[in-house]
Amino acid sequence: MHPVRVNGFVCKNPMEVNADDFFKAAALDKPRVTNKVGSNVTLINVMQIAGLNTLGISIARIDYAPLGQNPPHTHPRATEILTVLEGTLYVGFVTSNLPAPARNKFFSKVLNKGDVFVFPVGLIHFQFNPNPHQPAVAIAALSSQNPGAITIANAVFGSDPPISDDVLAKAFQVEKNTIDWLQAQFWENNHN
Amino acid sequence: MHPVRVNGFVCKNPMEVNADDFFKAAALDKPRVTNKVGSNVTLINVMQIAGLNTLGISIARIDYAPLGQNPPHTHPRATEILTVLEGTLYVGFVTSNLPAPARNKFFSKVLNKGDVFVFPVGLIHFQFNPNPHQPAVAIAALSSQNPGAITIANAVFGSDPPISDDVLAKAFQVEKNTIDWLQAQFWENNHN
Amino acid sequence: MHPVRVNGFVCKNPMEVNADDFFKAAALDKPRVTNKVGSNVTLINVMQIAGLNTLGISIARIDYAPLGQNPPHTHPRATEILTVLEGTLYVGFVTSNLPAPARNKFFSKVLNKGDVFVFPVGLIHFQFNPNPHQPAVAIAALSSQNPGAITIANAVFGSDPPISDDVLAKAFQVEKNTIDWLQAQFWENNHN
Amino acid sequence: MHPVRVNGFVCKNPMEVNADDFFKAAALDKPRVTNKVGSNVTLINVMQIAGLNTLGISIARIDYAPLGQNPPHTHPRATEILTVLEGTLYVGFVTSNLPAPARNKFFSKVLNKGDVFVFPVGLIHFQFNPNPHQPAVAIAALSSQNPGAITIANAVFGSDPPISDDVLAKAFQVEKNTIDWLQAQFWENNHN
Amino acid sequence: MHPVRVNGFVCKNPMEVNADDFFKAAALDKPRVTNKVGSNVTLINVMQIAGLNTLGISIARIDYAPLGQNPPHTHPRATEILTVLEGTLYVGFVTSNLPAPARNKFFSKVLNKGDVFVFPVGLIHFQFNPNPHQPAVAIAALSSQNPGAITIANAVFGSDPPISDDVLAKAFQVEKNTIDWLQAQFWENNHN
Amino acid sequence: MHPVRVNGFVCKNPMEVNADDFFKAAALDKPRVTNKVGSNVTLINVMQIAGLNTLGISIARIDYAPLGQNPPHTHPRATEILTVLEGTLYVGFVTSNLPAPARNKFFSKVLNKGDVFVFPVGLIHFQFNPNPHQPAVAIAALSSQNPGAITIANAVFGSDPPISDDVLAKAFQVEKNTIDWLQAQFWENNHN
Q: How many Cβ pairs closer than 8 A exist between chain A and F?
């Protein structure tokens, strides 16, 4: 017997569905080890909870080390809404290539515990913990069961195989050896 | 000058939009006073953050008194994903009138801190704090900027004007004086 | 050979599709035996007509015994539009937990033959035949090929297994023995 | 004060909405006078019931004179589901330019009272009353609050201004004077 | 192993996807042989590029012989946007059965090289090359990965099996022998 | 009189709509002057053709100077399909942060005249003209009437006001003075 799939994911026989199909012991209350830019995203999406399939939402805990950041990234299929549980975050997003003077406007805000902020679908955004001594924690929700994440530096400079350094040197208006240096870094993913 | 509206809500001139249109000092870190069934839902939706318009997501803090509950309710336009921040919750939802034996199945789970649970769009669900001494707190996200909430008891027995007691007595298979008694209660809303 | 499925339902090879895939001898002209609350819903959805898959509509005949009702219920995935074929119906729905004074408003109407009424997606609604001597009949259409139906009393008091009577007693502000009595009833489905 | 509009239609202040915004005394039980091809469509859409706005459904009564037809037409924004209330209908639709042998397949069926048939979105379809002595009546529902209707003969030969007869003669492989004759007819609308 | 399918089409394992899944050597720069009404549509949709699945777009080259036309047709699931690469086109579409005087309005335009025109979803439209000596070429894009096309004459007069000539004679207000003559033509498809 | 708006854009009275509302003399056949990275995008969207509103498509001509590029960018609300009219293009996109080994895969292809390539919604992509002597030209279509474009370098290094160089230095693993140098560049938009 092969499984029925909906939207690419297995769809269980309704007679066999149970509460565990809508549940994950995700330990979102527990701090995570952050990566070298100082963050960790623990995303609970349709890969973790099969019952989320087609339902258009997911949730994440984000940990920030002191001075850590969730670096500039986009979600190709979701808007994000975030609230700060612990610490302080400096957050922002940049608008698209609108006609000037609205072009590439950077909207930023310092968020304290309990504040809420919205990152519209597809826009480049980041969160940064400006506190050199204390970690920060946020809960974020995304408007897709499979929102995707594209960390800009990783996708541009850490792709497999690398993008041609000719292309990137001209795109970023730097020397090719700067691109080569960037491409030689280890671009660590912070999504787990 | 009258405002441009999209989806019934004012759409600001792009030149005048700023970070505050995507922000709310919502104090989601602060406990709320619960109502008489022992809960309080603090929902941050498009009414609180204009920038959420059309973006399909909202977030809420839910407080539960000891033995308090967020009573059986539905969201007509959203799926909900919830994580427990403090305490323990007994949660559940009931499936629709599917063919037996899947008809009106009750799926329930005891959630501890950090657990995640999903309530599919439109299904009747509740959360109950089984601890007689400690409050509980959850963060929930909903897949609409205006999800709506229908508390079953309030809508059925507390509507304005009341639904005919003839109709309700037969629907709930009780005497009319039981319906009259139910309709005489004060059905307090827990959504703020 | 396993079948291709779209949206969880079998999708026939286009070469083998024929008119019968879009047809059902549904006998919607024939009266149905009503259940103990005095109604019967004969729904023609994607389970009856495979060709409805992904097309977002279904149709139903509803029979009402004298003084019978289609008791308070919701459709989690559809708006309903209804027209009366025979008799008279007293119909209504209740709005969601909007800010007062719009909160839980009950909108009702007496419908005569040929009248049309709309029940918006996800809202609790009912139809009642106020005539003690004559049955009533309606045709209803729903904006989904699989709209779902949740009869409130059945889902709340007749779920399998039952919801805890502690939870329901507090939610409905009645004694636990009232809940126990309600849960002991036979909650008959009127959807066929 | 100018009105709020959603989707191009006036959206009333929620405080002022009432049951009549979801109601129409449409007299769908009453026979209509049919046009010269022998049919009449009485459509109840968002123009008749403001509360249908955004809700994705509408309903119609269709009257057919003896040997009358609802001639080949499409709904650009809706699937249709139809049930026969009185008489007999010969109905059909034609598939699109699929690869042969599935190309332009004509699927037809004779429908008796109580039968249900589906016309998928955008496909050319018709209903014909083959009975020379008795009228027929159907109720149809459409998956849009504003489905649109395009009667093929009217749009092709009765447009204002006319399409060039050079274009149509070649498209329909007939002489220009046949097109001229067709364009000289009075192409009566049967949608009211 | 059977393949995973999404939306009816095979969905490759993400580990095996490569650039060729998003590519087609479609030769859209090359003239095509036109059919007997003088056109050829070379459509690149999800059948040609598997990676288009769910992404909601496709592209086509259209060739027009001198005095050739892409005859009146609809796309049941897509809006079309077109730009002229070579030659001149006389294009138009007809609105639906709106209330008079907007009913069945014919909107037309002569397009020169570099002009852009839009054909809204589901409306009957055509393009005609008025030049008796030079061919014309256009690039068109459609808002679906599987837009469908219904050539009006082919679907109405060239279906398999034919629609009853009784029905068509009355619908088009012509003699049955005219219908018979039309149905005897060879209705050649111009979509490849 | 204030205008009716749908989706934020003016919706004309149907009685006043004409063919010009669906037309633009866009001169897409004419070469454009390219910017300093060697490209120019001439996008025809809902701002240029009001009749595109809600219809979900737009079209663009892209000019590439010899060795010019349309640098890495995303469309937050659209998939793109592209065909080469003149010259040769080296194109590619990078997948999102999928689990390794599918993480940040770079899919690239050399396109010749007439080839077609797809850039899925929200993914970072570029086109580069590898020919040092000849320009290249493409037509691209996007699955939104207002797709948006985010040029990565411009949004990250050229925003107004600038993103903190502390944040960017850590995100891109370079010295702050490299960021300062990048932020001092003139980031020219190539969308017109």
A: 178
Give this prediction's pTM.
0.96
Nearest CA in chain C to D94: C19
Chains E and F touch, using 3 or more CB pairs below 8 Å:
yes
A18, A26, A116 ranked by CB distance to B114: nearest: A26
Least Cα separation, residue F160 to chain B (angstroms): 12
Q: In this complex, which of F18, F107, F112 lies closest to E22 when CB atoms are compared? A: F107
Question: Residue B163 and residue C106: Cβ atoms within 8 Å?
Answer: yes
| 3+ Cβ–Cβ pairs closer than 8 Å linking B and F | yes
Q: ω into residue A161 within 30 of 0, thus cis?
A: yes
Task: Give the DSSP letter of residue D160.
Answer: B
| N- to C-terminal Cα separation, chain F | 32
CA distance F15 to chain B (A): 22
Q: In order of start, what are the domains of chain A with their CATH numbers? A: 25-148 (2.60.120.10), 154-191 (no CATH)
pLDDT of residue F102: 82
Confidence of residue B101 (pLDDT cuts 50, 70, 90): confident
Closest CA to B116 of B87, B82, B79, B70: B82
Please enumerate in sequence order all residues whose Cβ is within 8 A of that of C1, keeping only pairs 6 or more positions apart, or say none.
none
Distance CA E129, CA E110 (A): 10
How near does any CA of chain F get to the CA of B10, in Å?
A: 10
Instruction: Using a threshold of 3 CB pairs under 8 A, tell whether chains B and E touch.
Output: no
Which chain D residues contact residue F2 at CB under 8 A?
2
Residue from the list F2, F7, F8 with its beta carbon closest to the beta carbon of B2: F2
Q: How far apart are the CA of D71 and the nearest CA of chain C, in angstroms? A: 19
Question: What gap in Å lies between CA E144 and CA B157, rounded to an integer?
Answer: 47
As a residue count, chain C comes to 192
Instruction: Supply the pLDDT for residue F12.
Output: 82
Partnered with residue D137 across adjacent β-strands are D63, D86
As a whole number of angstroms, the distance between CA D123 and CA D7 comes to 25
Q: What share of chain D is helix, strand, coil (3-state, %, to 5)?
A: 15, 35, 50
Beta strands in B52-156 (DSSP E): 58-64, 69-74, 80-86, 89-94, 106-111, 116-119, 124-128, 136-142, 150-151
Best CA proximity match to C159, nearest among C192, C182, C190, C125? C182
- D2 and B5 within 8 Å at the Cβ level: the answer is no
Residue B16, number of CB atoms within 10 A of its CB? 8
D191 annotated as ligand-binding? no
CA–CA separation, E144 vs E147, rounded Å?
5
Q: What is the distance between the alpha carbons of residues C167 and F181, in angstroms, rounded to a whole number?
A: 63
Say if the Cβ atoms of C2 and E5 lie within 8 Å: no
Residue whose tokens read 């549904």: C26
**What chains are in contact with A, requiring at least 3 Cβ pairs below 8 Å?**
B, C, E, F
pLDDT in tens, A149-191: 999 999 999 999 999 999 999 999 999 999 999 999 888 888 7
The string of pLDDT tens digits covering residues F37-67 is: 999 999 999 999 999 999 999 999 999 999 9
Q: Work out the angle at residue B151's Cα, subtended by the Cα atoms of residues B190 and C61, and round it to the nearest 5 degrees.
A: 165
Which of E180, E174, E128, E182 has the alpha carbon at shortest distance from E154? E182
Q: Which strand ranges, in their side-by-side order, compose the sheet holding F150-151?
A: F106-111, F89-94, F124-128, F69-74, F150-151
The three-state (H, E, C) secondary structure of C20-47, written as one string:
HHHEECCCCCCCCCCCCCCEEEEEECCC
- Chain B residue nearest residue D55, CA to CA: B77
Contact at CB, B114 and A56, closer than 8 angstroms: no
User: pLDDT tens, F118-166?
Assistant: 999 999 999 999 999 999 999 999 999 999 999 999 999 999 999 999 9
Q: Which structure tokens are listed for E167? A: 């029905």
